[in-house]
Amino acid sequence: MLITLCFALTATSPMYYIAMLTSLFEGIALIVDQHQPIVEKYYGPGKMTFVVSRLVEEGDRVVTKLADGWVEERSVKRKASFPLVYMP
After folding, report:
1. Is 47:39 a contact under the CB 8 Å cutoff?
2. CA-to-CA distance for 70 and 75, rounded, in angstroms?
3. CA 40 to CA 80: how far, in whole Å?
4. CA end-to-end span of the chain, whole Å?
5. Whole-angstrom Cα distance, residue 5 to residue 71?
6. Alpha-carbon span 20 to 59, nearest angstrom
7. What's the CA gap between 46 and 34, in Å, rounded?
8. Which of 28, 35, 44, 63 has the fewest CB atoms within 10 Å, counting from its CB?
9. What is the value of pTM for the model shown?
10. DSSP letter assigned to residue 82
C-alpha cells in the first residue's frame, strides 16, 4: 500500500520524502527477511552480511539523493542563510 502511495505523491507534497524513505526501508527489510534463509542455505552461514552490506550501500545512495532533493525542493540552504533580523 505504501508503495502505491509513494507513486501517487509528487515531490512538492509534504509527505513525499517521508513516504519514499519509509518505502525504501520497508523494501530493504522485506528483501532481508525473504532472502536470508535462501542465502544461508545455499551459500553458508554468515554470507548474508555481504548481501546486507550491499543493500546498505545502495540505500545510502538513495537516501543521499532523496536528502539532496529535499534540500533543493524546500530551499533549505537559502532559508538557513538568512540572518534573524528580529530576535525577541
Report:
1. yes
2. 8
3. 48
4. 46
5. 22
6. 12
7. 16
8. 44
9. 0.73
10. S
